Amino acid sequence: MAFRALITGASAGLGAEFARQLAALKVDLVLVARDGARLERLAHVLRSRHGVAVDVLTADLTQASDLDTVADRLADPDCRVDILINNAGFGVYAGFEESRITDERRMHELLSWVPLRLAHAVVPGMLERRSGWIMNVASAAAFMPSGTYGAAKSAAVSLSRSLNARYRTRGVRVTALCPGLLATEFHERMGEDHLPALPRIAWADTAKVAREGLRALHRGTPVLVSDWRYRLVRPLIAVIPDRVLERLGSTNDPLR
After folding, report:
1. Are 114 and 67 in contact (CB under 8 A)?
2. Which of 147, 150, 215, 223 fits a disulfide with 252 by CB distance 3.0 to 4.6 angstroms?
3. Burial class of residue 109 in the structure, from the number of CB atoms within 10 Å of its CB (0-12 exposed, 13-18 middle, 19+ buried)
4. CA 246, CA 239: separation in Å to the nearest integer?
5. How far, in Å, CA of 88 to CA of 256, rounded?
6. In the chain, how long is the greatest CA-to-CA distance?
7. Higher pLDDT, 229 or 52
8. CA 66/CA 72 separation, integer angstroms
């Protein structure tokens, strides 16, 4: 029997890359995002190229009814999900004193509440089967005073560590994947003016980050900072004063 993975934010970027790599491994898929047309196009390609079963769930996870629909799908014992990848996300670019509180709330719900809600739905079945994997896509920003985006992502890291410590001996592995800058639509959706003006070497390869993340998930690594550039930088964060780090990331501009 083939494994099945449910991926949120699967229509583009890192989510779509996870879908492609898992399909190549013959893992059946449930793809979740707001743009149903894009999901259907991706699903068609994956079915024809890899011969896997692909279901599409069109959902806005910041809407309670849509979130409940996805949670119900995860909890359905007749359509088990072996791998949950919480990847959906967006960022608020405006500074904290200028941002709209409705945008801040939507971001925090999507980045911290949604992974908790979906993990809560899928864990009981995984424990019953004594097998399962959950990946929460966080960010290298989780380790820095980098605005409210970093605060939300730090919650995803803490949740992942806690669940992995509690359930790993019972067959459920949970990983927080913490990428840095990725060349995806994430920043483009915020507008060209919000693209970080950084050299090419600062941008990580999305396919490589996905491969590293899936390997870490299989091993049960609680937290993975991806890729090597950001792993080199992380130890420095502990010795740089917060006021300096905050000045470097003085807006909510997210790394991912």
Report:
1. yes
2. 147
3. middle
4. 13
5. 12
6. 53
7. 52
8. 10
Tens-place pLDDT, residues 56-99? 999 999 999 999 999 999 999 999 999 999 999 988 888 888 89
Helical pair 114-129 and 147-167, crossing angle rounded to 10 deg: 10
Residue owning tokens 């560590």 = 161
141's tokens: 């920003």
- On whether the CB atoms of residues 9 and 41 are closer than 8 A, the answer is no
> Which residue's structure tokens are 């999901």?
39
Q: For 196-254, how does the pLDDT look when each residue is reduced to its tens digit (9 = 90+)?
A: 555 555 566 899 999 999 999 999 999 999 865 555 565 555 555 555 445 555 444 45
In the chain, at which residue ranges do the beta strands (DSSP E only) sit? 4-8, 28-33, 54-58, 83-86, 132-137, 172-179, 223-226
Distance CA 3, CA 25 (A): 10
> Which residues, listed in sequence order, are joined to residue 173 by a DSSP beta bridge?
133
How many residues belong to the chain? 256
Peptide bond into 72 cis (omega under 30): no
If you ran DSSP here, which 8-state letter would residue 249 be given?
T
One-letter identity of residue 65:
S
What domains, with CATH codes, occur in the chain?
A: 4-248 (3.40.50.720)
Token pair listed for 224 = 């993975």
Judge whether 115 and 161 are in contact, CB under 8 Å: no
Contact of 122 with 81, CB cutoff 8 Å? yes
C-alpha gyration radius of the chain:
17
CA angle, residues 36, 75, 223, in degrees to nearest 5: 80
Nearest by Cα to 177 from 164, 187, 168, 195: 164
Q: Structure tokens of 222?
A: 């609680």
